[in-house]
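[09:14] KT: can someone run the structure on this one? pasting the chain below
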Amino acid sequence: MKFAGIDVGSRTIALAVLDENDDMEYVIVDTGHQPLKICKELLREREFSGLIATGYGRHMVHAEFADDVITEIKAFALGAKALHPSCRTILDIGGQDTKAISIDADGGVKDFEMNDRCAAGTGKFLEVMAKALSYEIEDIGGAALSAPKPVKINSMCTVFAESEVTSLIARGEARENIALGLHQAICERTGSMLKRVGIVEGLVFAGGVAKNVCMQKLLKRKLGVNLLIPKEPQIVGALGAALYAKKS
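[09:31] RB: done, structure tokens below
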């Protein structure tokens, strides 16, 4: 028997399939402009005994073919705890939202905060800033680490920050210094969210932005805890949904 979880996010769709021994196969694709069609293509040739959906598009998938839905908060708690049993705090920076979650020793959710009404500090924010600085998104973190000094960024609104970056470039500021300033601003914002839910050693860093080497280094330094980064940080929610499917 196999059990599946699908995490339909704003930028990517992740599918995780577990067998009875908890061996996992997974796939991650871009959400695109027809997410339901993409979900159908992912599921068409796969067989499983149960399917649970999570993410912003979970209800759309549930209406078509999922057995049930769970919230992203619960999915990430289950997935992070399974990947890293010592996990007590979770930071997920995805395409268009940021989640800070505190869990107990058994994996139950104690508290959480979610920034889902503004793209500030998310993957989308970094994509826009990378483009403004003429970097590829996968290169901006490394470029920021090479900067001798950061340039302070005053606005975290994506539109205003892009304008601010353009002005800084026009003033002759080095783009790597601007990149470091942007990463520090994101770090300050996410650090504040984490402190409000409580930071406990065993912090799992998930989501696409967890692959950013500069964010890894800055967060570790600011928070004073070791970061537990999954081998594939974008699969945590889908894994949690698959585990829920198996439990159900």
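[09:33] KT: thanks! The mean pLDDT is 95.
[09:34] RB: yep, looked fine to me
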